[in-house]
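Problem 12. The chain below contains 234 residues. Write out its predicted structure in token notation.
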Amino acid sequence: MAIEYMQLSDGSKLPIVVETGPMWKAKAQCLRNRDKTKNMPINDKPQTTYAIFHAKYVNNNCCFNYGNTGKRIHYTGPGTLSALNFSKIEFWSKGTGSGPWVMVDWEQGVYAGNIAKCGSGAAPTVECTTTGENPNPSIPFDVVTALFKHDGRAHWAIKAGNAKGGNLAVSIDLPTLPKGYSPLKQEGGLGLGEGGAGDPNGTGGFSEGAVIAGETTDAVDDAIQKSIVSVYGK
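Solution.
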């Protein structure tokens, strides 16, 4: 089966109206397009991913992701995922405050930065501290632009902002991937609302997103945010 669904939910639970009419948002819906994606980055190819999330529905369970995921619903090893995560999960890593945070699921670890929590089961060579805290701020907005990008081997960045107005307020630039994750081994599946092994216990609200081949410039990131605000800010 090309597309596999788990825990389907009614998208009309989160309605929003844009210029063209009603737009439905999916709450806690899990799906994966495992083997029919086209032009998805694989292995260490650069990638940019953005999504619109809703802070009201997050929890601290694994794993409300959106993005490049494994083609098989079981553990596939560090670096086989490169998916956005928006949650309060602290098991592997965390940001400052109580969350939620925009993070990245690389498989065998959801990261708010390059620091993991010691003893969490993250990749064995990863740098760790007792708390796993990174300088990644809690997100105060109810509707959130989340964006991350990477070059497949070293550089990656997390960005976030208010989808209803303003510029990208969070910008975290990291010169290296977490230890043990380079080069990436992306598999090119597309997942929403689940972890790499199909973990379905994370909750969240999701409006839209895209996986883009290549690492965007900061100017393109700003243009994406401007376009989002032009719709969600009305």
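Discussion. The two ends are 39 Å apart (CA to CA). Students who got a different answer should revisit the alignment rule from Section 12.3.
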